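Progress narrative, work stream C.
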Amino acid sequence: MLFRSARISCDKTGVSGMQKILVWIAAALALATMSQTAAAQVIEVTATYRERIAPPPDARLVSVLLDVSRADAPAAELGRTEIADAGMPPYQFEIAYDPAAIDPAHRYAVRSTLFAGERMMFTTDTHVPVLTQGASDRAEITMVRVAQERSELEDRGALTYGLSLPASFTGRLPCADCEAVEHHLDLWPDQAFHLRRTWIGGSKDGTVQSDLGLWSALPEDNALKLWGLGDAPETWRVVDPQTLRAIDAEGDVAADTLTGDGSLSETDLEGMFLGGMMTYMADAATFTECATNRSYPIAQEGDYLALERAYLNQTAGPGVPLYVHVEGSLLMRPAMEGADRRSLVVDRFIRARPGITCERQRADASLTGTYWRIDSLLGEAVEIAEGAREPHLLLTAGEEPRYAATVGCNQMVGGYEASDDSLTLAVGPATLMACPPPLDATERKLNETLRAVKSYAISGETLALKDDAGEVVALLTAVYLR
C-alpha cells in the first residue's frame, strides 16, 4: 500500500502551535486510513545543512521515503512529511509508512529538500539508506546547497532596509574584561562582509580577530545576520542607513551600535584560517575563498613558495584549480597593473586537497559530533594500517564533554575543554593492547599530539589542532557518510 503521511515530531524549528495542530490532524487522518490494513511504523529523521544561512520565513521542508531498488525506473514513494515555515535547522521528525509495503529484498532511502517558495535551497545529494539490507529505521541527513543564479542573490541583497552598500560601520563595544572591543564591519551588496575586532585593555589588549562570510536579511526583524567563519552568527538591526544595533542570542536589542557615513573604507583582515581554490598561470597566482566566492591575487611573500610548490606538484598543469588551506591575511598590495589590490598574504601553507571543490566547503564542520579522520600528526601523514580501524577523533558535547581517539590500535579517551578557538584534551585511560609496528610509533605520536593541543581552527571539512605556539600538530578531515 502506497501512502503519504504527515506525521511529525517537531522541536525548536520555528513551527507555530497552530501549524503543529494542523500537521497532527493530517497525520491522524493518514494513519486512520492506513490502520485499516496495518499499523503504521515510522522512520526517525534528523535533517540539517551546514551553511550558516537563515532560511526565509516561508521555507518548507519536504522529506520522502523512497523505494530505490530499480535504477531504470522512478523511485516509488512510500511516505512523506512536510513542514511549513520550517525555521532553522536541525529538523527532527518522523515519516510514517506501511510495513506491509516493505520488501526485504528492496532498497529504501530518505530524501529531504528545503524549499523557498518553489525554489530548492538545500537538498539531499547522497544515498541515505533505511530499513533493509542492514540499514536502521533512523536517518541523519546533511543537505547541500543548490546553486543559485547571481540574479537571485542580487534580489535578496536588495533587502538592506535603506542601507547604501558597499559601506563600512565602526564602533567601540563594551567588554566584560577589557576596556572595549573596537569593531570595523564592511558590507557589500553581493552579501559579502569583512569584520575586524581589536581588543583594547585587559589581558587581550591588542588582540585582533578577523572574520569574513555572507550576510542574509531577516525581514521580520529589519536585521542582517552575519554568517562568518566562527561558530555563532551575529545579528545587527538596521536602525537607519548609518546605524546598526546589536541583537543578542536571545533576540534582545542591545545598546551597542556601529555607525557609518555611507562610504566604504575597507579594513585589513589578519590571521585567518582559509580554504579556497588556487590557480596559477604565467607566474601569477589567484585564490578564490570558498565562503564568499571572492577572488584575490596571492602576494609572493610569506609562505608563498611552499604554496606554489604544492600547486606545481599536485596539479596537471597551469590553470588547473587546486583546493588549498592556508593561514593568511587579506591586505592591500601593489598590483601588476593599476591601483593596489587587496591580496592574500600566506602566513603559513597548511595543505592541498586535490579533487576537492568549494561546493562542500562553504560551511564549517562542527567540532563536536563529527567523525574526524586523522590525516597527519606532528607533520607526518597517518596511514591506515592493514586490518586496523581508520585513525579518527570524535568529540561529544554534554554536561561532561568527552573525546575518543585512535590510530587503529588502542582507543584513548578523556575529557576536553573548548572555548572560542581554545581546546585542551585531558589524556585519560586507554585500552592496553600491544600495538605492532608501525602502529606503536604512530600511537605514541597521537598521545604526544593530544597532550600538546591548546587551540584549533576549522575551515570547511578541515580541522587543524595547534600547540601553545600556534603550530599545527594535527590535520583532520570531517567524514559524514559512514
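Work stream C, second folded protein:
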Amino acid sequence: MEDLRIRTGPGLPRGLVIPAAELHEQFVRSSGPGGQSVNTTDSRVQLRLDLAACSALTDDQRRRALCALEPRLAGTELIVDAAEHRSQFRNRKAARERMAELLRQAMAPPVQRRPTKPTRGSQRRRLQAKKHRGRIKADRSRPGRDA
C-alpha cells in the first residue's frame, strides 16, 4: 500500500502526505450484482484513518478536521467505504480518492462573510413590493359608505 497524497488547496498550501502505515484497509464482500464471483471475492473496501493519532497533521489541522468531519467519525476514526466497482483494485483507488477529498475539504479554513449594505436599488424595489402588496390587501376590504 502506498502513502495517501492530498493535493494543495485552501489550508494546505503544500499539500499533505499521510503515511501508508497509518491507513488501515479492510476488504469485505460487496452486495449487489456481480455475477458468479460476487459471493467469493472481497471487493468492497473500508479505509480507516485515526485522525487523533495521525502524525502527518498539525494540531490546527487535526482540530479543524475533527470539527468538520464530526458527523462522519466513529470516535476519532474516519471510515470511508467504496463498493461501486467490481474490482478490489478500483474500489481501493475510489476509497483513497474519497478520503483525500474529504480531508482536503475539512482542512479548508471557514470562509468569512463580509457584511455588506443592501444597494439603493434593492431597497427601493423592496419598498415598492411592500406598497404593492399592501394595495392588494386593501382592495380586499369592504368598500366604504362614500363609494
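Strands lie at 4-6, 16-18, 23-28, 44-50, 73-74, 77-82. No further action is required on this item.
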